[in-house]
Amino acid sequence: MNDPKVKLISGILFPDKNYLDWSISKLTELWGRPEIMSEPVPFDRTNYYDEISPHLSRVFVCFSDLYNAGDLVSWKKATIEIEAQSRQPIRAVNIDPGYIDGARLVLASTKDHAHRIYLHDGIFAEVTLRYRFKNWQAFDYTFPDFRSGVYNKFLSTVRELWLREVK
């Protein structure tokens, strides 16, 4: 059986434009120029990443073409390497790859939790949002910023790209 085809996206938490540009250049080396990118959104729903900076923003980038969903682990491992390259002495960015298809947003994580499925090599997958009744819907475990709907317009645009490309 062939892996499902999905749209590869990556969320980037960054402290300033220099680190955003640096992160995008590193991701471009891996997957090509982004097809679309979201507007930066202040990331202020948690202090979990305060070791990076107390003032962070998040953008999402979506890459051209369709990718194999089964490659999620290799995407996460590649972004972990990029994060390690940003150390000064601690990482300056957080990069979370994932994918969108017609029904869901899936994100990769290195952290285990009851709602995450272990894939391999220390990487877990999480269905962060589902698309149902023409809307992105959160689960009880969905991160507050995703739950807020602030990314929904971008995610819907990526979903539309996926729908066009799978036809």
Model description:
The chain has helices at residues 17-31, 72-85, 144-147, 152-166, and strands at 5-14, 34-37, 41-43, 56-63, 67-68, 94-100, 104-109, 117-120, 123-132, 135-138. The chain is an alpha+beta fold and 167 residues long. Strand 6 (94-100) and strand 7 (104-109) form a beta hairpin. The chain is globular, with a radius of gyration of 15 Å. The mean pLDDT is 93.
Terminal Cα span: 19 Å
Give the fraction of residues assigned to helices.
Answer: 25-40%
Secondary-structure element order, N to C = EHEEEEHEEEEEHH
Average pLDDT reading:
93
Largest sheet: 10 strands, antiparallel
Short note summarizing the structure:
With 167 residues, the protein is α+β, with helices and mostly antiparallel strands.
Task: Please name the defining characteristics of this protein.
ten-stranded antiparallel sheet, globular, 167 residues, alpha+beta
Write the layout of secondary structure elements.
Elements: E1 5-14, H1 17-31, E2 34-37, E3 41-43, E4 56-63, E5 67-68, H2 72-85, E6 94-100, E7 104-109, E8 117-120, E9 123-132, E10 135-138, H3 144-147, H4 152-166
Antiparallel strand pairs: 1-4, 1-5, 1-6, 2-4, 3-4, 6-7, 7-9, 8-9, 9-10
